[in-house]
Amino acid sequence: MRHTCLFFHAHPDDEALLTAGTMARLAGAGHRVVLVLATAGERGLAPQDLQGRGLGTVRREEAHASARILGCSRVAFLGYADSGHTPGPAPARGGTRPFAAADVEEAAARLAGLLTEERADLLTVYDPAGGYGHPDHVQVHRVGYRAARMAGTPVVLEATVDRTLLLRGLRAASWVHRFPPQFDRDAFRTAYGARSEITHRVPVKRHWRAKRASLAAHLSQARGGDSERTLAALGRLPGPAFRQVMGTEWYIQRGLPAGTLHRDPLATLPNARATAPSR
């Protein structure tokens, strides 16, 4: 059976880091994959040579390029402004309300309209902490769940990272990579999802080339800022290392029995054929 899966992200490149393998896997199996972005990511870091074109325009183009690589059938933007990673309420700019400051009901209605139009079977959001705490990511969690209730979308998965593996990887990376002085590794002790919460561990090693190409499509986010960006570091990994490091994607579905762990992102759809959880 063909299903429609809507992946909701805050900014272009978030899909490449967290869900690209799952998107490519589903599209390759014949399902309809839709990418929805709350903002154009215009407050992200970028190299000087791209600033003149308008970063939002560049990142929109990069999002479409990434979506084509992953086999998406549609890309849509909710039309909010990028809030930036700053504490406190973000000011409106150019008459466009920052996503983190948007009315949840209003934003959810926009997203619910797309869910209803697409007759989506599955929606992905983020975990309650928004992964690493970006205010737009936290808002994706709030807006996504409300929109799913409005539209009657049966399954909501929270895209996350296994925190245990993340902390282990950061420790290993610190031996070969010098993190910038402002980098606080301890802050990740409460970031993303605890291993005990994860309900879907999706293998995507077969789609590592698509995921790597999706990351590479977001060129503006590989070269901006004073220190090396995550996308650049991942892009330099040899193929076998990239396949190993980026070969699994993790999700949380609230309300499932403790200890449930699925490999198929569609396993818990009401009309899905029953599949035994992995252990």
UniProtKB/TrEMBL annotation:
Entry's transmembrane regions: none
Keywords: Zinc
Record SUPFAM superfamilies: LmbE-like
Gene3D superfamilies in alphabetical order: LmbE-like
Keyword Zinc: yes
Pfam families: PIG-L
Annotated InterPro entries: GlcNAc_PI_deacetylase-related, LmbE-like_dom_sf
Lineage: superkingdom: Bacteria
Protein name, as recorded: PIG-L family deacetylase
